[in-house]
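[job 0412] stage=complex_fold ligand=(2R)-2,3-dihydroxypropanoic acid status=START
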Amino acid sequence: MKSKVLVTRAIADGLLNGLREQFDVDDSQQRDGPHAPGELRRRLAGADGVLLFGDRIDAAALDAAPRLKAVCNISVGYNNVDVAACTARGILVTNAPGVLDDTTADMAWALLLAAARRIVDSDRWLRAGQWHGMTFNDRFGTDVHHATLGILGMGRIGRAVARRAAGFDMRVIYHNRTRLDPALEREVGARFVGMDELLAESDFLSLHLPYTEANRHIIGAAELACMKPTGMLVNTARGGLVDEAALIDALREGRIAGAALDVYEGEPTVSPGLLPLANVVLAPHMGSATRATRLAMARLAIENLIEALGGAVPRCLVNPEALERRRT
Ligand code: DGY
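[job 0412] stage=complex_fold status=DONE, emitting structure tokens
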């Protein structure tokens, strides 16, 4: 008998057809949004594996899924999954790293440039009919070239962001839990600094670290107070890294010059205080949203699912501790 697999989002027909050859698939081809918790629990009830994007898998969802063996994220971040609860039940959890690095780095740059050169605010201003001819003393932005780019979190995405800075003749500094080896530092053109120096020196500070409880509000009121008043914050990582209330205060009071955000603390809710601010660019968590990248993410997640349900060790396993008690 084929294993049962729940797919929580619409994926490419070709990929779905491939899945159907191996599994009994409950698809979601007609939807493109997260499930309500009750609906997800109901759909998980008979599943051996789930391929998901953004949906929350918590202990209550797991309790409703007694056969579940594999939770395969179509994303690199997996803070939507209670990994400890999965491990305790012998359920393997996988993510989809590597295939979205360049696309997410492009997005960080798109946001950085949009904030620096006031693209979104100016677009709104023009559409509102306020442009009456080229101005000489208005619409001033911030120069990106020759500025200092600070990167917090120097994994694959952070490094891809750093490499792109060479085209803007920027100085790149970074802080990371562990320092890169010198050859890699040279290759990406970045200098390791302490957190204090990172905050004080960055003209643009871009976040590229995973969300964990330890990283929650790694950028809070105290950190924002250490940034330059001309500094800008870019977040394409996870909303919980930033204390959104403190950020709103800093932006309102002009203690930093701007921010560009793709992710939010209470996603999909965006703090109302952000909405009226002209010095913020807001995007709806779409850092990896290109067709080619989403296809690659889904393909990698499927490879993990096949490996996990086939009894192999999936290539992107995030909880190897679960292997010793894995469900069969
Ligand atoms: C990821 O892969 O983690 C992206 O943020 C999409 O969720």
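The mean pLDDT is 97.
[job 0412] exit 0
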